[in-house]
Amino acid sequence: MNNSIQPYRNYYRQRTANQWRKTPAEHGDPSAIRPFLAGNWKMNLIPRAGVALAARIFDLCRDVKDVDMGFAPPFTGLSTLADYIEPDFLRREYGIGRNVFLLAQDTFFESKGAFTGEISADMLAAIGVDRVIIGHSDRRANLGKYFGFSSSVARRLSKDFLTHTLKRLNLRENPDKQVLATIEHLLKEEHSDVLEGLATFLEAELNERAGESDEAINRKVHAALSNGLQVIFCCGENREAHQMNETFKLLERQIRMGLEGVARHTMPDVIIAYEPLWAIGEGAKSAPLEQIKQVHDFIRNLLMDLYGEQIAAQVRILYGGNVKPDNIASMMELAGVDGALVGGASLNAFDFAKIIRFGLPD
Ligand code: PGA
C-alpha cells in the first residue's frame, strides 16, 4: 500500500460547490444526488425499542419519497429492523419503501476466523444490511481511552518495568544495542523526571489518539465494498487540528489513505461523511455553515483529483456534528451538502422526522 501523503494543495479554491450540479431527485436522473439523512443510534436501544422508534419516524414521514433515510442500530438490532423495513410493507403502511436503508455502525476487515467479538462484512450483507459506517470518530479516536491500553503502555516507561526489561534483554544472545543504551540512559537517576514526563505524555497521547488507523479503515472499506455493501466513510479533524489550521491537511490524509485502492467504478458506492470531532455530541455546537461549505468543496475537489469530474459530481458528501431540526435546512441549502449523519437527534422520533423532512412544511 502506498502510504505517502501528497503535498497539500488548496483544492477548495479550484471550484466552489455552486458550480456543481445538484440535481433535484424528482427529475428521475439516475445520477442525481438524492439527499441522504442517516441516523447513527450508537450504543442505544434494544431491538424492539429500535423498531418502535423507526415506526414512529415512518409514521411522521408518510409519503416522503425524495430523500433517502438510513438507520444504524447496534449490531444486535440489525436483524429485527431488517425484517421490519421490508419495502413492500413500508410502501403499504407508510407510502415509503426503497428509500429506507439499513446501516451497520462498523465492520471488521477479515471475513472469518479467530477474531472474537468482530463481525465481518459478509455477515452483515447476509442479514440485509445495505450500508456500513466506517471510520467513525468514536472508533478512530477514543478506543485507547475505552480499552485502557494507554495506561498499560505508559506503564512500560516506569523505572521498575524498564529495570526488569533491561535484565531480560541482557539475557538474550543478541540484544538490540540501541534499545539497551536508551533504557540505561533513561534509568539514570538524573533522568527520572524525563521518564515520568514521557510516561504522562504518552498516556495522554494514546488516550486521545489511539483508535482505528487509516490502514485498518482502508481494509474495512475494501471488505465492505467487495461484499456488496455501500460505505459511509467518516472523516473529520479534531479540535487541535482545527485550531492549528490543519483541517485540510488531515482530511486529505484520511481520505487518500482511507480510500486507497478503491476503484473508480466502485466509488458510487461510497458516501463521505464529514464530521469535525469538535462539533460532535452533547455540549458541542455544529460547525459554522461557512466551514461546512469550504470543507465540502475541498472534499469534492479532492475527489475530482482522485477520480475525475463525473465521480466527484456523483458522490454524496454528508455533514455530521450536532445536526438538529433547527439547523438542517440551512445546511441542506449549501450546494455541497448532500445530507447528514445524525447522532443524538436521531434517537428522538420527532427530531429525526423533522430532519428527514427538512424544507417540507410540518
Ligand atoms: P451528534 O453525533 O449528532 O450527536 O453530534 C454525530 C455523530 O457522531 O455521528
> What percent strand?
5-15%
- What is the rounded distance between the termini? 50 Å
Helix/sheet category: alpha/beta
Number of H/I helices: 17
CATH superfamily (homologous) name of the largest domain: Aldolase class I
> Helicity level, as a percent range?
40-55%
Q: Biggest β-sheet, characterized?
A: 8 strands, parallel, barrel
Question: Averaging pLDDT over every residue, what do you get?
Answer: 89
How do the helices and strands follow one another from N- to C-terminus? EHEHHEHEHHHHHHHEHHEHHEHEH
Q: Per CATH, what is the topology of the largest domain?
A: TIM Barrel
Structure description:
The chain is α/β, with parallel strands linked by helices and 362 residues long. The protein folds into 2 domains: 11-141 and 212-356, Alpha-Beta Barrel (TIM Barrel); 145-207, no CATH class. Helices cover 45% and strands 10% of the residues. It is built from 17 helices and 8 strands. An 8-stranded parallel beta barrel has the order 1-2-3-4-5-6-7-8, surrounded by 5 helices. Helix 8 runs antiparallel to helix 9. The longest helix has 19 residues, at 289-307. The chain binds 2-phosphoglycolic acid. 2-phosphoglycolic acid is lined by residues 40, 275, 280-281, 320-323, 341-345.
Write the layout of secondary structure elements.
Elements: E1 36-40, H1 47-60, E2 68-72, H2 78-84, H3 87-94, E3 100-104, H4 121-126, E4 131-134, H5 137-141, H6 143-147, H7 149-154, H8 159-171, H9 177-187, H10 192-209, H11 214-226, E5 230-235, H12 239-243, H13 247-258, E6 270-274, H14 289-307, H15 309-314, E7 317-320, H16 328-333, E8 339-342, H17 349-356
Bound molecules: 2-phosphoglycolic acid (PGA).
2-phosphoglycolic acid (PGA) binds at residues 40, 275, 280-281, 320-323, 341-345.
